[in-house]
Amino acid sequence: MSHHQRRAGPGGSQRSRQLVLVTADDAYIYTLRCAYLAYLLQPRPRRQVPAPAPPQIHRSSTSFHELMRDFSSHTSRGSKGNRFPKGFLPALQPRLEGVVMGREFGAEYKDAAVKRTFGAFYAAFREPRFYEGVAKSRRAEDLVLIFYSSATKELQKVKQDDSWKWLSDRHVALFVRLMYNVLKDKDWIGSYPELASQLATLESKLLQHDQNLAEETRPTSIVMVMGPPAPLSYNVNDMPLVKIVARIFGVSLQTCQQDINTNKSVWTEKAALMDMKAYSNKLSLGNTGRTLRSEDFDTDEAWEAWRKLETPALSQIMLAIVQSNPSELVKTTSGPSPITTRPQSLQQSSAYPYHDLSRSSTSSDAPSSMYGYDHPVDMGNFDVSSPVADDILDTPYTYIPPDPRAYFRHVVEKCLSYDLQDPDALPMDVPGADPTVLLSKGSLDILSECCTRWRIPQFSSSILFLDVVRKFYQDQDIDLVTLDTAWLYAKGATDFDWRTWTIADQNLYRQILLSIHDSLLRDLYDLLQHAFDPRAKPVGRVMYILNQHIYEDPLFTSTGLESYIEQLKEGLRNRAFEVLGEIVSELPQDKNELDPFHLVELTQKIIKLAEKVNKRFKEPIMGSVDPMMIFVEVVFPEYAAVARDVVLGIMQAYQEKNQEVEIEDGFDLYRELSEIRQIYGDLFPKNKFPIHLEDFLADFVWRWIRNTDAKVIGWVDEAIKQDDFIIRIRQEQGREPIDDERHTMSVVDIFRSLNQTVDYIKKLEWKDDVQHGKFMTALAKTLGSGISRYCEVLEKLFTFEMDRQIPEQEVAASQTRQQRWVAMARDAWSNKDKIEPFQFAPESCTKLNNIEFALQQLDKLEHTVDVDGVAATLARHTPPVTQQRKKSSNYVFTIKIVEAEDLKAMDINGFSDPYVVLGDEYQKRLAKTRVIYSNLNPRWEETVDITTQGQIWLTATVWDWDTVGDHDCVGRTSIKLDPSNFGDFLPKEYWLDLDTQGRLLLRVSMEGERDDIQFYFGRAFRNLKRTERDMTRQITDKLSAYIHHCLSRSALKSVLSKGYSISAVSSLFSRTGLIAVAVVPLTDYFNENFAILNQTLTSAALTLVMSKLWKEVLVTIEGLLVPTLSDKPSQQKQLSPQETETVFKWLRLMFDFFHAVDEHTGEATGVPIDVLKSPKYHELQSLNFFYFESTDNLIRTSERMANASAARREQARQKSIEKNNPTSTSFGGFLGVPGAKRTKSVLMSRNLGTMRRAKEEKRREAQAEPNDDMILRILRMRPEAASYLKDRNRQKERLAAAAAAEAIVRQSMSSGGGRMGTMVPGGPSRR
């Protein structure tokens, strides 16, 4: 193959040359020779002298065409010939326009006739057909011929004699010169050497008489011509490059003058010509050792490419030397091949000129060539290929040093050193200067001259230049910017294709890369040691040079980067530790002066520093070194440990001074340290942050919670104090308020404060879920106490307003006892009906609206806190029940006052107005029920919670409410509430005999007051619901008296006392007579009160009041039909069929009234149908099936239903055992079986959702499992069933005892205990 590799690597078989030690004097002498030679070869000025009378010129057109034939035929085989470059015509066009417009440089183009001929040619040049044809053929002779034709025509118009003939030659010569200048300005001479040579030859032939092209044509007969060149002065002051050499080497001009004078006879043009001829012959021989050889290149292609360009370059140089003194130099050579040519610029002719690196730095308006001539020289006797004598081949060169590379490197070092130190030299940062210029113009000129004379290839000059730059950088004489600029400078000088370089240049460049790479890595290490400083040193330039100039270079090979990267990381880690120590040292040394604020400032400083480092190093260094990651990995955990120790020290110091650290300071510190931990976690998700911040900062949160707990009652009291509970929208805006506007600011302010309290903790973003759950649990307790306080105060205010006396009552209260009795007797005698609508105060209704709004807000707050999620988190991290050693110290007893039987009559009408007061053993009042008017078997069904820390004796006193005088005691009883008796946490019912007459039914259940967020929210919800229920009941109590009056047995007797038959009774319902007797007054009374309530209550609150009234109607009608449930016979008589029919008609009428279906739209606007059709309503409807059955049938039905219920319970128990579910099944009964499932526990009331679900479940169970309670209540009115009632009672007691025992055993087994001793109070309540 044509390409073969000469060497396998940097240590190939290149023949080593003897190392030449270059001294400064040696380099100076050879550089001075080059500078002096440049002076000898420079163009010399000539003077104008009168020319002799020109001979008559007889120029035929044939002679010009002969010149053109010679121009066309002088083309080397295989060369580009006379074809011009592709971009030549676009470059020529503006030059032609410049001549026509008078803008072209040079006086010879200013003549009017010249402008005219060029203008005529320009017109032909712009013709599309001509332009396209010439552009396609690219033949220079086509342009010259067209110009000659255009010039001839124009000059014949101007000149009437034969002078136009020689003027046409003159103008064509000017055009040829213009073409040559275009090639030179565009750097095309090196690529088209033959074309340039032919153009120069044609120009010289056209100017046979050595005319001055700049001389204007004069109308006088005297013609001025150029005289001989001026003689050389040989004065160094006239030698520009010699002056530069003197400055660079620090030699005086006098010394330079002496050296030149001494060697002037040796340093001649002839010596330079002999050097070039000897060099050219040695190049032809190939292996002389005096030029580059094929062994010096990696490939044959590289060697041939260099030699192909080097040969014509030598010819151009020798031609330039000869033309400098042709009269002398041409005589020294002879040959058969005469060459008459115009030489090219030396800088442009060289294939590898150093000066090409900096063409952009030279002025555009500089002279066209240092060595070019504008006039022809007779070169007919000169032959560049003439042989040289053998003895000359072996003699040393005059101008070329023994080791040109070593000498050139020394000169480059001198030039760069001088320019870096010389303030007058052109620096690279001068505004307007080329940023890639490192050397002054003088240095570039002398280096270019040396390259040309010493035959230094361009790539070699670039590599030697980089080697000098490498030395300067390692000696710290230049910075990174200069290094980068030098690299760009060197790469811009050539194509930088290493495959065309010599082996020596490749090896040197590899050494340069490795050396600079090692230096850059050291500098990078040093720079990164400042990566964490407030003002870091940038590393971008280092990385840019590494990435752009070294790592991407194919000649660069390096190993050991992995170890360097590890060292770099280790250095950054060590520096990070040092920076941490410097930051921590800013803390006050005196622990008494330490404050959390100092830590907050330091934390912010560290975070800001990390952000700065992140901005400085957006990408990892060397692909894997991230200073920000290292800083965070090292500093953040260590600083957190320091912060922990400092905080503990601060807290101890404050404790010694009996002071506490500000809570806000602790919170600020936690936020800042949490940000540090967050950043660390984001960057290192697999690493665990070593410091648990919450352990030593949790105390601040607990202190804040305790402070909040101490303030919450004050918040509630202040909110209530500032609230007048008046809605002013109707008065202020003249419109009815909507439901969302029917509450006042007290409840809004309270829940705003409660929400802010919760949000404050949530915004801390506490990362310890268990601690956060405990915080929320404590807050739930605090919130519950605030809500409980609000309920307590509002209910007291509500009760006070509801019990407020009307003016008539105030007058009656001021009467004496005798006056009051007389007034009562008079009213009774006159049968005066004093039932009037109750005037409910607007502020009372607003309080009920506030409670409803509080329920909604608490439900939202419960979802915000995520109560169930918090409870689940705590449950996962709480030890099992068997591992819990601590017992609850607080117990919550839920006491439901259900009903009373056979109370003593305390009023003269044979009834009592009973209410119950609960108190403890210290006579402290705990609760009070509402008053049930005119009833000896009242049913209250009111619930109260009592919290104790152990056993307590509960006293229940039944009082008779009297409008006049003191209230009378009906009876008293007591019960011991011992937590040990309620270890199963299931409800129990107790019939308690009064000390006078009758008995009282209490339903008691207990659950430990758990430190549980669900428990606290459940208790808060239950407090609100009970307050809402109690307020609603107080409203309904004001109306219930008239319900009892209208739907009483006396009213029933009054309707039937006129002797109506059943059919008559039925027919009366189609008229208003019977309805008006009992129902119409009641509905009117309801409507009047509803109208008052509707002005203030919300729709939901009004519906709730109506639902309670409906329940009161159901209870009243139930009382007409059957007695309460008991094991004793009742004195109440069963109604007759007529009475029963009337009562059920009343029930239907009241159902329709409360449902309130619109007659036109058919839409129900009252109580929802599902509320109306309650279990109580269905029980009353089922009463028709059994009411008039015989006693035997009722007993058989009761037994059948009891057996079916027992079978269902046994089946449920077996399923529970199979599923290993210890949950007790539900047992009904009038004694309240202890095994009954709890549906109203605190946990079942923790939000509105659980409360609704519990209510729906209770409704479904009541409908799914019918019982015989209603039959037993009917049997109480049958004296013959007394024994069955007793037997049934004992049966239920046995079932209840068995169920309770089984429930206790199952719960003990599910708790993991072995004996019953595990069921002690204080265990966890069941959910």
From TrEMBL:
C2 domain segment(s): 875-990
InterPro entries, per the entry: C2_dom, C2_domain_sf, Glucose_resp_signaling, MUN_dom, Munc13_1, Munc13_dom-2
A Pfam family assignment: C2
Region (Disordered): 328-368, 1308-1327
Low complexity bias spans: 359-368, 1317-1327
Residues in MHD1 domain copies: 667-794
Top-level division of the source organism's lineage: Eukaryota
Polar residues: bias regions: 328-351
SMART domains found in the cross-reference section: C2
Domain MHD2, first and last residues per copy: 1076-1198
Protein name, UniProt field: C2 domain-containing protein
Source species of the chain: Tuber magnatum
Lineage, broadest ranks: Eukaryota, Fungi, Dikarya, Ascomycota, Pezizomycotina
